[in-house]
Structure formats: structure tokens, C-alpha cells
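job 3f2a | input accepted
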Amino acid sequence: MIEKGGIFWNAWADLFQFHKSYSNMEQSDEFWEKARDDAAKLECKYKDTKAADFVPKVLVAILLELEAE
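job 3f2a | predicted structure (69 res):
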């Protein structure tokens, strides 16, 4: 179970916000540049934590979903 307030809880909340902020937006070069930069910031935020493997995998899934829209 994910502990509320724990690293995975916080990572999941950040990933949800990332997805929410980019879904249903008009895609353009600027859109993808900002999405890439924000994804890199999230990856960096969690790189030295237990969620270091989890965050990039979920980001890839989100970006693939966004690309398919």
C-alpha cells in the first residue's frame, strides 16, 4: 500500500498533475518542448529516491497517451 505523504504518494500526485495539465491541449512544438522540460524536472526531482525507476516509466506512458490524442 502507498503511504499517504510518502515518496510514491507524492510522485503519483505530481504525475497526475502533469497528466492533467497537458491533456486536452492543442499540441504544437511549444507544447512538446514544455512537456519535455516539465517531464525532465519531475524525473530530476525523484532521481535520488525510491521512486527513481517509477517516475520515468509513468512519464513515458503519459507522453505516449498524449501523443495518441
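job 3f2a | The helical segments are 7-22, 29-45, 54-68.
job 3f2a | closed
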